[in-house]
Amino acid sequence: MSAPESVDTLRGALLYQGKAKQVYATPDPTRILIHYTDGATAFNGLKKANIADKGAINCKISAFFMEKVAAAGVPTAFERNIGDRDQLCKKVDIIPVEVVVRNVVAGGLAKKLGLAEGIKLPSPLVEHFYKSDSLNDPQINEDTAVLLGWAQPHELLAMRDYALKVNAVLIAFWAELGVDLVDFKLEFGRVALDGSVGAPTAVVLADEITPDGSRLWERGTGRKLDKDVFRRDLGDLSETYRELYKRIFGESL
Ligand code: 5GP
After folding, report:
1. Cα 129 to ligand 1 centre (Å)
2. What is the pLDDT of residues 67-126, one digit of tens each?
3. Model's pTM, two decimal places?
4. What is residue 224's DSSP assignment?
5. Which protein residue has the closest C-alpha to ligand 1 atom 20?
6. Helix or strand holding residue 156 (H, E)
7. Whose CA is nearest to atom 1 of ligand 1?
8. Which atom of ligand 1 is nearest to the CA of 107?
9. Hey, how many other C-beta atoms are within 10 angstroms of the C-beta on 59?
10. Cα 24 to ligand 1 centre (Å)
11. Ligand 1 atom closest to Cα of residue 100
12. 20 to 30 Å CA-CA from 85: which of 12, 22, 62, 174?
């Protein structure tokens, strides 16, 4: 009889130490365990803090949204939560191209173009960034990604299509809660279609959908309900995330 599924029976070697997450091997080579920590960083690791319960809050929020977007036709690497802070996911080959979708001018776009934050875009803007900590994730275009071999044209098309579907799902969800979705970042990966080496691959949404990688502004007040609270010293991020949790799940953590 195999041991019951738990973090202890699933967690193998540490494969990757991220800024807010750790990735572990599992007994199944096609699956990984993602562990959400309370760590928060900003400005590519220059600013760091521990935010009480952030890991548990983000683990639950990301699972909730991954299931929602999967139901809307976006394939994801997420399988299920194991306990409060761990997720069993398909092991993917991460595509080193981050996709940002923007509905409102803010953050990097405002800074780069000298624009005021808050200008509503007439339709969603999809941007691409090269995933590289040492280079601070520079913006690229899709030609760059193709010509440097980071992603194939059909993969970029799928990523754009999925990112816009995620945007539509999230906009509608947050609107019901009186929150405007300003922008967010997604990461994608490849999974082998039949699990064998060299088999054809499909693009799936990987990583997370959390307020760490999104901008969420309260409708009417413009109050920030995302990691900008930490990046810009606007208040207590733990309290902000607890409030988001309560809005989403109708109960306190
Ligand atoms: P910006 O380009 O304005 O800095 O970021 C656009 C959106 O993508 C924001 O919602 C931001 O949270 C998210 N984003 C971009 N890069 C990163 C990153 O490296 N880490 C996280 N957590 N979010 C990111």
Report:
1. 10
2. 999 999 999 999 999 999 999 999 999 999 999 999 999 999 999 999 999 999 999 999
3. 0.96
4. B
5. 213
6. helix 153-176
7. 108
8. 3
9. 24
10. 24
11. 8
12. 174
Classified by CATH at the fold level, domain 93-237 comes out as: D-amino Acid Aminotransferase; Chain A, domain 1 (3.30.470)
Which residue of 98, 185, 216, 217 sits with most ligand 1 atoms within 8 Å of its CB, as the best mutation to test the pocket? 185
Average pLDDT over residues 202-211: 98
Measured distance CA(83)–CA(179) in Å, rounded: 28
Q: How far apart are CA 103 and CA 112, in angstroms?
A: 16
The rounded Å distance from CA 223 to ligand 1 centre is 18
Ligand 1 pocket (Cβ < 6 Å) reads 100, 106-109, 137, 183-185, 212-215, 227
Radius of gyration of the chain (CA): 18
Q: Which CATH number fits domain 7-90: 3.30.200.20, 3.20.20.150, 3.30.457.10, 1.10.10.10?
A: 3.30.200.20
DSSP state of 133: G
Q: Residue 194: pLDDT band by 50, 70, 90 thresholds?
A: confident
- For the CA of 111, the nearest atom of ligand 1: 3
Q: Residue 95: which region, alpha, beta or left (left: phi > 0; alpha: psi -120 to 50)?
A: beta
Which one, of 81, 35, 19, 84, lies nearest residue 56 by Cα?
Answer: 84
Residue 1 has pLDDT above 60, yes or no: no
pLDDT (0 to 100) of residue 2 = 61
Q: Rounded CA gap, 173 and 8, in Å? A: 34
Where does residue 233 rank: exposed (0-12), middle (13-18), buried (19+ CB within 10 A)? exposed
Residue 199 confidence class, pLDDT cut points 50, 70, 90 = confident
